[in-house]
Amino acid sequence: MGSMTGGTIDLERRWTIAELDQLPEDGRRYELADGVLLVSPMARRRHRWGAVALGDVLKDACPPHLGVFPVPINLDDPDATHFEPDLTVVGRQFVLIENGDVPVLAVEVRSPSTAGRDAVLKRREYARLGIASFWLLDVDIPSLRVLELDGADYREVAYVEGAQAVTLQRPFPVTVVPADLMRP
Asked: Which of the chain's ends, N or C, has fewer CB atoms near its CB within 10 Å?
């Protein structure tokens, strides 16, 4: 297959989702965008802290027909695109279906190494997949950018920083204060 030679990963060729299982479990995140392998470093502690804290806020407000995945899950379409949002909200049936269902919310936590990819590439792909809500959490500012699907692209409906609170209605009523997410 030629995907790895002597422990080196060939970043120049097209990859498939099936080949991702052959990559090392080295703490890095491996994703695909139309066959192009995207490699991200291990998440910083602040990154994971923010994702877990936001997941807790979402879980507390989540209605029974939805569930919060506080860890990355696979979003595949069809064999050459594979993303792992930092946090998702899904319908309860999502855990029973391997293909054909998408989250109602995908959250990406901004990292210096992936900020552009999250804001441009993942925004485009999540819209194409039909994910109704897409949030970008920046743990360094801290801030939250809220995007809602409007036709084929997202429209920004809210942006808050620090101690500002935002109350959102989609995917369900919830209030988020970015600064609160970063308190130990």
From this structure: C
Decide if 75 contacts 84 (C-beta within 8 A). yes
Q: Model pTM?
A: 0.82
Dihedral of the alpha carbons of 144, 132, 34, 51, in degrees to the nearest 10: 30
**Which pair of structure tokens corresponds to residue 64?**
């029974």
Query: pLDDT of 105-150, one tens digit each?
Result: 999 999 887 788 889 988 998 998 899 999 999 999 999 999 999 9
Find, among 25, 101, 17, the residue nearest to 66 by Cα.
101
Residue matched to tokens 């099936």: 18
- Please state which of the four CATH numbers 3.40.50.150, 3.90.1570.10, 3.30.9.10, 3.90.1720.10 is assigned to the domain occupying 43-181: 3.90.1570.10
Distance, CA of 29 to CA of 164 (rounded, Å): 31
Per DSSP, the residues of 70-133 read: -S---EE-SSS-EE--SEEEEEGGGGG-SSS---SEEEEE--TTTHHIIIIIIHHHHHHHT-SE
